[in-house]
Design goal:
Layout: E1 2-6, H1 11-22, E2 26-31, E3 50-54, E4 69-72, H2 79-84, H3 86-92, H4 95-107, E5 110-116, H5 143-163, E6 167-172, E7 175-176, H6 187-196, E8 201-204, E9 210-212, E10 214-215, H7 216-228, E11 235-239, E12 244-246, H8 247-258, E13 264-267, H9 282-288, H10 296-314
Parallel strand pairs: 1-2, 1-4, 2-3, 4-5, 5-6, 6-11, 7-10, 8-13
Antiparallel strand pairs: 9-12
Helix pairs in contact: 1-7, 3-5, 4-5, 6-8, 8-10
Bound molecules: uridine-5'-diphosphate.
Length: 315
């Protein structure tokens, strides 16, 4: 079985490449390194079951051989990144979605789309289930990501209805773990980097906003299950850990786990920062028989160890 993974050098994409190779698939990874990092896949280069193509998928994609599954995971995913690369973000989840869906259509392949909890915007319903349509500012700074993902979901469903493509849409909630960039701007790498350097921990707003954090290994299991299961064409699943924490709780936890002398500094809240976010994963539990197993404390310990090793290598 052959799969194509876009965003192969990214945080989630590279872990997916590992998983599919480990499960016996042949993986063609594509990335243009806009926010991905060649180091994330360097260990796979030379593996007979992996091939890498450096390419920008906002251009037409040609792959000569047969493909069984296309996974579209390319996109800047940190708010800092997608606000820095607004047009690229819009293009990869519009033109890139058309090209990858076109590839799936040509190859009669299954199509897995990496959607996001951001399609719920600043949710007015809590926790968020797949039936909720969201509350999104269409012209705010975050809209380049939120609306591109919403547009991509609509495109997936159009290809499913019009061309009978077996699409599955995965709405991924906050995920963390090894291979995130220390400077990618997301809350967990920011706080761990600051705590390890004993710098101020930058809490935006008063820190009462909440998020629910899923460890990468749990997420990858969910994505893999949703990719190989039969009979779930056209379905949408929330994937995330439903344990909800405030950002201030997270800051205190990271200070404690790193034994840091850092203190908390309060900065202004970014535009349209969602106040609460927590997935309802009932559907994934029932239909995929999946739920996360790794607690925030366990996952943070593993992530802190990874960042400690990275920082040591830099000295
Ligand atoms: N945040 C923070 N300090 C930071 C980075 C992020 O307080 O240094 C907050 C951010 O305002 C948001 C939450 O942490 O409320 C999660 O932010 P992240 O950028 O990780 O992703 P989001 O869930 O907003 O997509």
């Amino acid at each position: 079985m052959k799969v194509v993974i876009t965003g192969a050098a990214g945080f989630i994409g590279s872990h997916l490449c590992d998983k599919f190779v480990k499960e016996g698939f042949y993986v063609i990874g594509i990335d243009n390194f806009l926010t991905g990092n060649p180091e994330n896949i360097s260990h796979l280069i030379g593996n007979d079951n992996f091939r890498f193509i450096k390419y920008n998928i906002t251009n037409y994609i040609h792959i000569p051989e047969d493909i069984d599954i296309v996974l579209h995971f390319a996109c800047p995913a940190s708010p800092v990144d997608y606000i820095n690369f607004p047009i690229q973000t819009l293009k990869v989840d519009s033109l890139g979605t058309f090209h990858t869906l076109g590839l799936a259509k040509t190859k009669k392949a299954r199509y897995i789309f990496a959607s996001t909890s951001e399609i719920y915007g600043d949710p007015q319903v809590h926790p968020q289930s797949e039936e909720y349509w969201g509350y999104v500012n269409p012209i705010g700074k975050r809209s380049v990501y939120d609306e591109a993902k919403r547009f991509s979901e609509a495109t997936c469903m159009a290809y499913h209805r019009e061309h009978d493509i077996d699409v599955r849409i995965l709405r991924i909630f906050n995920t963390y773990g090894p291979r995130m960039r220390l400077n990618d701007g997301r809350v967990i790498p920011n706080f761990i980097g600051q705590a390890l350097r004993h710098e101020n921990i930058t809490v935006y707003g008063d820190g009462s906003q909440t998020r629910s954090f899923c460890y990468i290994d749990d997420l990858v299991e969910g994505i893999f299950t949703a990719s190989i299961k039969e009979g779930i064409e056209g379905e949408v699943f929330n994937l995330g850990n439903p344990e909800e924490f405030s950002i201030i709780e997270l800051a205190r936890k990271i200070i404690k786990l790193t034994d840091s002398q850092s203190t908390i500094e309060f900065l202004s809240l970014p535009e349209d920062d969602p106040k609460r976010r927590c997935p309802d994963i009932t559907k994934a539990k029932n239909m995929l028989d999946w739920k996360p197993k790794i607690s925030l404390d366990e996952g943070l310990e593993l992530t802190i160890e990874y960042f400690k090793r990275k920082l040591k290598r830099r000295v």
